[in-house]
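ingest -> validate -> predict -> emit
validate: passed (alphabet ok, no gaps, 226 aa)
predict: started
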Amino acid sequence: MRVQIAPSVYASPLLRVGEALDAVEAAGVDALHLDVMDGHFVPAISFGVLFVREIRARTSLPLDVHLMVAQPENLLDELAAIGVRGVTVHAEAFAARPDGSRELGEVLRTIRGAGMRAGIALQPGTSDTVFDVFEADIDDLLVMTVEPGASGQSFRLDQIEKIRRVSARARISGIQVAVDGGINPETGAACVAAGARYLVVGSALFSGGLDGIASAVSRMRGAVQT
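emit:
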């Protein structure tokens, strides 16, 4: 199975985001990863549905939206109407609700019912036992190898074993394991060796400027091909 490379748009030069999108698409990436942050679930504020809509109009690449928001259910109808491919939510967004587990299950089924891929993100401190409850309701499992909410953090090596554990189970269920946080050719290769097949890449693609994107994608592709 081909390893998918998905640039994190939040890490791109936002004042030149259109050019950045053109550059990554020309470089042959597989999808775009869009971090929607509300300033409540995580301290940072990134962008919202309007920005996602503008990106949809700019590119033909599949869009995968990672909702780091307190009430993800409020955005699902709009995201479905825009035509995003997948939506990933956090179990922690539901943890403090009186019936949070049931509500999370309903949200995952709503995502699928709208024709999108449903995913759960695992923060570094989140046990992968959440997989036990929602395995039948998800298409994607996103292992975060940094704390959510800020780009440019260092990869946490202690998450490799979690990637290995969930990947072993995910292969049986047909679930795609993705990794987000501090991904570069070296850490990406380690994640793929542990079983991941979708890599969210930020600073490693954009830190060299727009002219360096094609070579950065090529280096990533060479490091993680299986």
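The beta strands are 4-7, 32-37, 63-68, 86-90, 117-122, 140-144, 176-180, 198-201.
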